[in-house]
Write a structure and sequence with these properties.
By secondary structure, this protein is an alpha/beta fold. It has helices at 19-34, 47-58, 69-73, 90-100, 111-126, 143-154, 172-180; strands at 6-10, 38-41, 63-68, 83-87, 103-106, 133-136, 166-169. The longest helix is centred in the first third of the chain and has 16 residues, at 19-34.
């Protein structure tokens, strides 16, 4: 893959119950700024999204938000963003975020975060893109998901090499290191 210059982060619009999730969101925002990496995210000011964005903005990082008009109308937009793209739909939002990013990182989150992870993973699996997808596995949050993906392979719905399409780490530096060395498998893809 090489140097990642912009990262799309998927994460919760809630803070979750573990204070380490908020801490990890802030640390990720600060880390991306320290590496000169543009943060692309959903544009929100609430939950882990807001924590991460504010941490990056406090250090004068480049932060791009992408938000559907319906959520903008609810006044959920983080103030002070470097750029804000307003879209008509959630599909357009995801398309724009994918367009702006060199890679993807997921922090803990809910159904929307899982949906974004799986869409990105599915597209990677069938060759629509070759950008790295990393899970910042805060306190083992994604362990059940990783077990489910291993179960999917065991049951014959994906090839064993499909498990290498997601990189994981418990800290941002290790995760970025793995993402920059990511190379998708070139074999037949299915599942």
């Amino acid at each position: 893959m090489g140097k990642v210059q912009s990262v799309c982060v998927f994460c919760g619009s809630s803070p979750g119950i573990d204070p380490d999730y908020r801490k990890a969101a802030r640390e990720l925002g600060q880390f991306l700024v320290s590496r000169g990496i543009t943060l692309v995210y959903g544009g929100g000011k609430v939950g882990l999204m807001g924590e991460m964005a504010r941490a990056a903005l406090e250090l004068h990082g480049r932060v791009i938000g992408v938000m559907p008009e319906r959520l903008v109308e609810r006044e959920l937009v983080q103030e002070g963003l470097t750029e804000l793209y307003v879209t008509d739909t959630m599909h357009a939002r995801k398309s724009k975020m994918h367009q702006l990013a060199d890679g993807y990182i997921a922090l803990p989150g809910g159904y929307g975060t899982y949906e974004e992870i799986f869409e990105t993973l599915s597209w990677l699996h069938i060759g629509i893109h070759e950008k790295p997808l990393g899970l910042l596995n805060v306190n083992g949050y994604f362990n059940p998901l990783l077990q489910m993906l291993a179960h999917t392979v065991k049951q014959g719905f994906a090839r064993p090499d499909a498990l290498s399409l997601i990189v994981t780490a418990s800290d941002p530096e290790s995760l970025l290191h793995r993402m920059e060395r990511f190379k998708p498998e070139r074999g037949d893809r299915w599942g």
